[in-house]
What we know:
Elements (H helix, E strand, L loop, with lengths): L4 H14 L3 H9 L5 H5 L6 H19 L30 H18 L13 E6 L5 H12 L3 E6 L11 H10 L4 E6 L4 H6 L6 E6 L5 H17 L10 E5 L6 H12 L3 E5 L15 E3 L2 H5 L4 E4 L15 H8 L3 H4 L7 E3 L12 H4 L7 H19 L1 H4 L6
Helix pairs in contact: 1-4, 5-9, 5-15, 6-15, 9-10, 9-15
The protein binds phosphoric acid mono(formamide)ester.
Phosphoric acid mono(formamide)ester binds next to helix 6.
Amino acid sequence: MADTQELIARINALALRSNRSKSTLSRLLFGNGKRIDEIEAGGSITLTTYQRAAEALAELEQTAAAGAHAPHSSRYPEGRAAFPHKHLLGIAGLAPHEILFLLDEAEQWVELNRQSHKRDNRLAGLTIINAFFENSTRTLLSFEIAGKRLGADVVNMHAAQSSVKKGETLIDTALTLNAMRSDAIVIRHGSSGAVRLIADKVDCPVLNAGDGQHEHPTQGLLDALTIRRALRERGVTEPFSGLKVVICGDVLHSRVARSNVHCLTTLGADVRVCAPPALMPAGIEQLKVTAFHDFDAALEGAEVVMMLRLQNERMQGSFVPSPAEYRHLYGLTPERLSRAAPDALVMHPGPMNRGVEIDSIVADLPERSLITTQVEMGVAMRMACLDVLTRQPRGVEGWQ
Ligand code: CP
């Protein structure tokens, strides 16, 4: 029998240093077999189990020592060449190094946001307008919090209470916001392409907070950041390379799906999309994904399962027979999740229809559900985007 005292001490030290729970480490080191707390309570393990765990622990310790979330500055060019775009309208067309640059930039804000004093004044004096023509909880609040934590003055324009209701056109609204000398405009709109229309009319950077069925780029980025951090915590050094991701649900109406497909395929993931035939866009294979109508088949070996909401507000007529039937075929239940890889990660951009596309027991799975982490990463990712896109107008060295 192996002496486990030193092993347990090292595991405890790593849990503290890497901010990982002991149950996560337990699963990483011992699989689904004997757990650390049992061993701590005096349970013995075989020499083979001990040796395997010690080897895996040494690798995790090395990753932690190298800085699990350290940036990869060698992967992208210096200064403005790292992200030479005025606006963030979509992920389509971004180079892998541009996406990685934004993810790396967000890491510092994850750390700041976990402190009690969450303040960095680099955007002090700037005015950011959040113009939301559609409802939002996560995106609106996180952009507001992001701007404020960076010291900017942030104002929110809710279309329902604006002169849009009196018939003002989108172009006139854009010209009005521009005349107020805003330094960045964040826009959510129900029409695909509306955000580009506004970007073409204003002087400042424009960030797309979701336009119709087109793109939701900061959601794609925050999802990639969430996945990268979760897998790095498991000791995976190249998290996106060949990563098997399933995106399932109302793909037809989902800007989240589109941005995630662009983001994840650009970073090297193997993306499968799954939807009922009526909710699958024609020609989706052109986006370098594999299309499935059978969720059970799509799930085989998946390492990340990303569920999408049925977007009833974008549907004219009935696309699915009933919520119960939809759940039967496309809902993520515990039984269905067991078809995916062991420990597969569960994601959902929110808002969720619990009991329809995802069961509560799955949505709330400790360790494996990343749904609240996605929200946390949303603030950091939006801080990174606001900072990077305003560097050129702020005259930051290397960005003029
Ligand atoms: N994921 C997302 O865009 O959520 P909100 O609609 O609440 O912003």
